[in-house]
Amino acid sequence: MILNKTYVETMTSRLQKARLSRSRMARTLSYSALLATVALAVTSCSNSVAPSPYAGMRVVATTTQLADFTSAVVGDDGVVSELILPNASAHQFDPSARNLLDVGEAEALVANGVGLEPWLEDLTDAGAFSGDLIVATEGIVLRDGEGGAKDPHVWTSPENAAVMVNNIARGLSEARPDLRASFSQNAAAYVEKLALLNSWATEAFASVAPEKRLLITNHDALGYFVDAYGISFVGSIMPSLDDNSEPSALEIDALIERIKEVGAIAVFSESTLSDKLATTIAREAGVAVYSGEETLYADSLGATGTAGATYLGATIHNVTVLVTAWGGTVPPLPEGLTL
Ligand SMILES: [Zn+2]
Fold this sequence. Notes:
By secondary structure, this protein is of the alpha/beta class. The radius of gyration is 28 Å and the shape is globular. The strands form three sheets. It has a four-stranded parallel β-sheet with strand order 2-1-3-4, with helices on both faces. Strands 5-6 form a two-stranded parallel sheet. 49% of the residues lie in helices and 10% in strands. The protein has helices spanning 2-49, 64-74, 97-105, 120-126, 158-175, 180-206, 223-228, 249-262, 276-285, 311-325, and strands spanning 57-61, 78-82, 108-111, 132-135, 214-217, 232-236, 266-268, 288-290. Helix 2 (64-74) crosses helix 5 and helix 2 crosses helix 6. The chain has three domains: 1-52; 57-199, Nitrogenase molybdenum iron protein domain (Rossmann fold), CATH 3.40.50.1980; 207-325, Nitrogenase molybdenum iron protein domain (Rossmann fold). The structure holds zinc ion. Zinc ion binds at residues 90-91, 153, 219, 221, 243, 299. Zinc ion binds next to loops.
């Protein structure tokens, strides 16, 4: 009994001591956490008193594709913010307060040009932009658009994308000669991937007979892509290069007739537009509709985490969807084509 009592007492005492030391340890821990917080606050206070200048470059890009190209060129040497959000139309833009701040702080602004950003001047005025404006499509042979205008969807051809990347690298280097070496090295590495992408896509489309490469989309955004891979553009649901227009009942009927006439087998929806009309037209014409996860990326890249979040990913996705729909064979991705 006595032995048992002593045993219990000893154990109780040990347990109490252990509890005590644990709580002491906890107090010590929370105290050091507090110290760390204070130290951090002191550091950030002293930072706000004497801010160290940001050594990297701040750049703003208008479209999702341009932001992706620019990020590839800038690498770790800066911050790139995009104006147009993923899956949004590239033809309209409503700036937020954040956008204006970004534009005001930017050393360079990368734009598409070719009439895609009629809002750009208002934006740079409102945001008090004082950096370099880089027009990425400079020097590219433009397709004719409608009404004497040129087709602004230049990026959809990987060869054009390579020219755009080099234009961006040159423009950024002019703005920041101290980062030139890094920019041109990054651009060269990315252009190499675009070349791999282009030969892979060429091989993929070659597995489909040219007369079967018949494309019908929501709006006429893939002209440069169509030219690059010998695709025949049958028609678009929106009667214009812009995606704000609505087709008339007559135009819809004419497109359905045209789909039947040429023997197309599918209508492809685009990620930035509703697939409702595409679905109706495909049903009326008795062909398949590719929408949802099989929607094409044209005016915009996809959201982070999706297949279309990058230009390389979006193009691989588009080629895979089209070639598969047309009954072709998609070759394996080349080794150097990492996303
Ligand atoms: Zn468009």
